[in-house]
Amino acid sequence: MPTMEDARQALSRYFGYESFRPGQAEVISSILDGRDSLAVMPTGAGKSVCYQIPATLLGGLTLVVSPLISLMGDQVRSLKEAGIRGSYLNSTLNQRQQEIVMQRALDGWYDVMYVAPERLRDGRFLDFASRASVPLVAVDEAHCVSQWGQDFRPAYRGIAGFVDALPKRPVVAALTATATARVRADIVSLLGLRDPTVQVNGFDRPNLTLLSFELTPKARERWVVSYALSHRSQSGIVYATTRKKVDALADALRDAGVRAVAYHAGYDNQSRSAAQEAFVRDDAQVMVATNAFGMGIDKSDVRYVVNVGLPLSLEEYYQEAGRAGRDGEPAECFLLWSRGDIRTCHFLIDNTEFPPETTRTDRERLLASRNALLSKMIGYAMSDTCLRRRVLTYFGQAVPPSDGGCGGCSVCRHLSPDDYLGAVRSRTTFGRGVRERELPSEAEVTDEDERLFQRLRALRKSLADEAGVPPYVVFSDATLRAMVRRRPTTRDELLQVSGVGKTKLRRYGDEFLSELRGE
């Protein structure tokens, strides 16, 4: 039976980290002990490691239920870059390709397989899974099982039945970033978790600066363009509430010379895939999208997220904002709203489409719930008290009193929209004022450091293009920053940098050492 020491060795071998992040060890230990788990961990906390490490140790095939097939390819490429044998089975593969993948899985080629929840209804897949050895089923974005969450997906209700239909019930691990107590109870019940270990790691993201500004619709567009122009070297996501607004913002950015792409349900699959590919590979600087984009997005170096308009709930907002700074480096999350947004949100809720079988009582109950969620979102937008405290209190996390405020939101820092326009600011002053973390202070970061960091980013982009993977899959920004701080000159020294595992050392080590040495 694998031990936690085996897990730590696997973490170092595959990912280049010497210790687990908060919460990861507890979830992995539960899985290795054969116990179901529910992990609620903030975006960027490393939820995927909670099933990826056990998958390398348990033998057989770990199944990962993931909601977006458009991201599965990148997830599998990331695994392969780390040296883990991954695969996916979805509608992008033709029937012959699907048969090959399933046969290879039965032959032991893979440690991990990603599938969409709808796949579990397929009798052919159930027959395959019944013949495979499946020690673990990991349910990503587990809040999708609950109609009280913001991303309810009916197919998630079939996961429990699929698990029970297998010849031997596997361990089930449910993972999500945003879930209130009510949604957590739904996850346990509707996924059929048995006496699960529940790991709620807290919702605080200290590296994120939270900002809410009231602006007119025209002023918002000008603000977004100005901000993107002053942050040309950084990746950002701009969310808008309608397709029309997405197209208008993307056009305005492109007219100003910003490399922007657009994503919403009005585009065909090929156009959406091309836009996503350009963004994750750093060929586009800004993604402008409706909330159709982003669930499960693995791009770790998004430095800012701007919501133009009010989301319908704080869950939705915090999940979208949380796509910034997944690498732990500083990032900024803006909410730009106007009074007209409130009317728009009420209109959308009042015109919610329900399945035909929904009873009048359930309809009224759901509408009341969604209006209550919107009320909390409006309270956040208009708040004159700490934004971070509002978020954490909403999710049920105790917040210690602080006379000085959080130091990382627009209210506590008394900031206005104009504070963010003007001269280009260095990345290393990005998010200043947020509480301490393991980052160099501004005084410690020199112009030479920044030039080296940009050279390493350029090398990363070149190697990523050559390998056909997104740049963040090669190394994260946090790992590049660590290289700049430590200036390793040998392979052994480079291996000591957090995020450099043995597989990536073998693939990319010599090129990065040459750049670090100035050769």
Verbal overview:
There is one protein chain. The chain has 519 residues and is α/β, with parallel strands linked by helices. The chain has helices at 4-15, 24-32, 49-58, 72-82, 95-106, 123-131, 159-165, 181-190, 217-229, 243-255, 269-280, 314-321, 339-350, 360-381, 387-394, 447-467, 471-474, 477-486, 491-495, 502-517; strands spanning 37-40, 62-65, 86-89, 112-115, 136-139, 171-176, 197-200, 208-214, 235-240, 260-263, 286-289, 302-308, 331-337. The protein has a seven-stranded parallel β-sheet with strand order 3-4-2-5-6-1-7, sandwiched between helices. A six-stranded parallel β-sheet has the order 8-13-12-9-11-10, with helices on both faces. Helix 12 links the parallel strand 12 and strand 13. The radius of gyration is 23 Å and the shape is globular.
